[in-house]
Amino acid sequence: MNILLIEDDLTLGRSLQKGLAEAGMRCEWRRDGKSGLTALQEQQADVVILDQLLPDLVGLEVLNAARKMGLRVPVLILSALGSVEDRVTGLQHGADDYLVKPFAFPELLARLQALSRRTLEVPSQRHTVGTLTLDLSTRRVTRDGEDIDLTPTEFSLLEYLMRHAGQVVTRRMVCGHLWEADWEGVTNVVEVHISRLRAKIDRGHPEPVLQTVRGRGYLLTDASPPDASGSARL
């Protein structure tokens, strides 16, 4: 299981990272809200452990931004703020679980495993980013309720991008998904498919959902890209 830990306390962070590693989990650790949000966008975490009182952006701000970007990764808030009001507020803002400090490490492990199982047991057949919707059961793509006709390759590409909504997807990742090959050097083929897909899903809409992040890859989101100065359209 891949865990993203966003926690500013040095002692607790080191302890959690070590304990999770000993439990057979991979733990990426960030110590402030801004870098935590960036990691959320770029990495494929199975569960996020999110502290509430963080530098730069507090936990709820990180959570709100992630949900607005379409990120659906399970989030467990880990906080010293333990009143009923605090817990209710966290859950209402999109958290999937809430654990109050101090806590028992075995309970944290159990909660992480439960969140991971819940995600695996209910595979989503419908993906939505802003007004763009893809339905796997009907193979239908719509934006603002209007049907969009895609080729099988374009549909598969869009499904992959939507499953990683809010995250930067590299050309190598696209190649691996579409052709089960690692040939990132041949960029023009990927760019052609991206360009054709963008023309179909963004045509007639003032706010594009498919961005190109220079030097990094592609980003599907209904929010601004992580670095607007480094993004451009093909």
What is the secondary structure topology, with strand pairs?
Elements: E1 2-6, H1 10-22, E2 26-30, H2 33-42, E3 47-51, H3 59-68, E4 75-79, H4 84-92, E5 97-100, H5 105-121, E6 126-129, E7 132-135, E8 140-143, E9 146-147, H6 152-163, E10 168-169, H7 171-179, H8 187-202, E11 210-213, E12 217-220, E13 231-232
Parallel strand pairs: 1-2, 1-3, 3-4, 4-5
Antiparallel strand pairs: 6-7, 7-8, 8-9, 10-12, 11-12, 11-13
Structure report:
- The protein is α/β, with parallel strands linked by helices and 234 residues long.
- It has two domains: 2-121, Rossmann fold (3-Layer(aba) Sandwich), CATH 3.40.50; 126-232, Winged helix-like DNA-binding domain superfamily/Winged helix DNA-binding domain (Arc Repressor Mutant, subunit A, Orthogonal Bundle), CATH 1.10.10.10.
- Helix content is 41%, strand content 21%.
- It has eight helices and 13 strands.
- The strands form three sheets. The protein has a five-stranded parallel beta sheet, with helices on both faces. Strands 6-7-8-9 form a four-stranded antiparallel beta sheet, covered by helices on one side. A four-stranded antiparallel beta sheet has the order 10-12-11-13.
- Helix 2 packs parallel to helix 3 (59-68) and helix 6 crosses helix 8.
How would you briefly describe this protein structure?
The protein is an alpha/beta fold and 234 residues long.
